[in-house]
Design brief:
Elements (H helix, E strand, L loop, with lengths): L1 E13 L2 E12 L3 E2 L2 E2 L4 E7 L5 H17 L6 H18 L3 E7 L3 E8 L20 H8 L2 E6 L4 E8 L4
Antiparallel strand pairs: 1-2, 2-5, 3-4, 5-6, 6-7, 7-9, 8-9
Helix pairs in contact: 1-2, 2-3
Amino acid sequence: MTDLWAGVMVRYAQGGAAIGWGAASVRREDHQVDGVTSESGLQLRRRLVRSDLRAVSEARAALRDLLRRWGRTGSSDVAELLTSELVTNALVHTDRDAVLTATVGPRRLRVEVRDFVGRRPRVRTPAAGDATHGRGLMLVQSLADAWGVRAHGVGKAVWFELDADSF
């Protein structure tokens, strides 16, 4: 396994106070990721610190960089939007850290956000007059080529896939 440093700095915090900075990595791996064979194996993995919503914009930027390295110079808007929704849900609804993993291959992008709370998310219809809540999974369901929730021993992973021709 070879690490390729993406040059993206990640702020690590504890209880709202910064405790340091670290580099996020993009790496090539020769293995299967949750049933999706990643032939090119380019992958982004990032720790998301609970309640730090700055992680949402940082995740979008890191995903843009991953897609650029993948050679997809087209629009990344849908991928960024769906990633933002999964990251926001994990940070807002669990009050725990989470892990973002994005893997690209010749045919698809797969983004997964793993948290450490077993409660399964559900697609909701937004309440009338609620301009900011209840749309995340509805967007994922509508825009992704595939999506789902996978249970872990502790917690779950919510994931989506976009076909390469979406870019």
